[in-house]
Design brief:
The chain is α/β, with parallel strands linked by helices and 305 residues long. 33% of the residues lie in helices and 17% in strands. Strands 1, 2, 3, 4, 5, 6 and 7 form a seven-stranded parallel β-sheet that branches. Strand 8, helix 5 and strand 9 form a beta-alpha-beta unit. Helix 1 (3-28) packs parallel to helix 4 (107-116). The N and C termini lie far apart (52 Å). This is Polysaccharide pyruvyl transferase domain-containing protein. Residues 184-253 form the Polysaccharide pyruvyl transferase domain. It holds the Pfam family PS_pyruv_trans.
Length: 305
């Protein structure tokens, strides 16, 4: 990288950091917070199908067209940031889903919401969960970096907590009603970041694989046509369970440890030793849809939709 490119990259990083701080401060210092309508705030990233499809605006008519990307607050375009500020100040908020809690990249958002929770702003968390990268916390009870009791309605995808369990709303997608023929015994679904790990990719080169930066339809079809799914992607794990598949995960975050139906936890190195532990679960899709529909009714009543 040339010195000029390095300087431009640093300058861009500085500008984004400044933009984030400035727009957050404008929102929390604004005394005029309203609930005129509602907006679904989540990571609206089409390059990560799990992040993209884990939000309720995709599945309920009451929320159609009412979505906002969490990361628009750092956009270099003034008009995009201004729209982010205006939209949040004027509307009630649905946060999620996804692994938004206990993740440094979303700390500023959570701090903002904690302050807004002290106003008349209506805020709903829908299917969010903890997502710490600290291996010391894997499998441990984690204190959220929000105070759930401060909010009007909170549903978390982590099971066994005092908060209501609401699995990822992507289960509502009609693609999970489609039948697919199994064409492989074992399929690997990599998180897109794992594609940079040549050692891991080489280790599994004998297996058919896909990554979570593929299209949603391609990823779901790949999962559904596999008998066993090995993955380090949360949504690949979840969607495989919706299809009643046997699942093994290679955890890269705390998010894998508190789903109601536990997959086999293993490592890239020792996965063969754990293949005989695999099991599938029945009727996960039906249960997850029932729970989300019930939560939707409560949320829409609370938000007066």
């Amino acid at each position: 990288m040339s010195y000029l490119n390095f300087f431009k990259k640093k300058l861009s990083h500085f500008e984004r950091a400044r933009n984030k701080k400035e727009v957050i401060e404008r929102i929390v210092s604004n005394p005029y917070q309203h609930n005129n309508d509602v907006v679904n705030l989540h990571r609206l990233d089409p390059n990560n199908v799990g992040d993209f499809y884990c939000a309720p605006h995709h599945y309920f008519d009451e929320l159609k067209g009412k979505a906002l990307d969490l990361f628009d607050y750092k956009n270099n375009d003034d008009s995009v940031r201004d729209n982010w500020h205006k939209t949040i100040c004027e509307n009630a908020l649905i946060i999620g889903g996804g692994g938004l809690l206990n993740r440094p990249g979303f700390n500023m958002h959570m701090n903002m919401l904690e302050k807004l929770s002290q106003t008349d702003k209506k805020i709903v968390f829908w299917g969010v969960g903890h997502n710490s990268k600290s291996s010391k916390l894997y499998g441990k009870q984690i204190k959220y970096n929000i105070t759930p009791s401060n909010y009007g309605l909170v549903g978390v995808r982590d099971y066994g907590r005092t908060e209501e369990w609401i699995p990822c709303v992507s289960c509502m997608h009609p693609i999970f009603d489609t039948s697919f023929d199994e064409t492989r015994e074992i399929g690997i679904v990599f998180h897109q970041k794992t594609l940079r790990n040549k050692k891991v990719i080489s280790k599994f080169s004998d297996f058919e694989s896909i990554a979570n930066n593929s299209t949603f339809e391609a990823m779901v079809e790949f999962i559904a046509s596999s008998n066993i799914v090995l993955t380090d992607s949360y949504h690949a794990m979840y969607w495989a369970m919706l299809f009643n598949k046997k699942v093994m995960v290679f955890p890269n975050s705390t998010k894998f440890y508190d789903f109601k139906y536990q997959p086999v936890i293993s490592t890239f190195s020792n996965y063969k030793d754990d293949l005989n532990k695999l099991q599938s679960y029945d009727e996960v899709l039906e249960e997850c849809r029932t729970v989300n529909n019930a939560f939707a009714e409560k949320a829409f009543n609370y938000l007066n939709l």
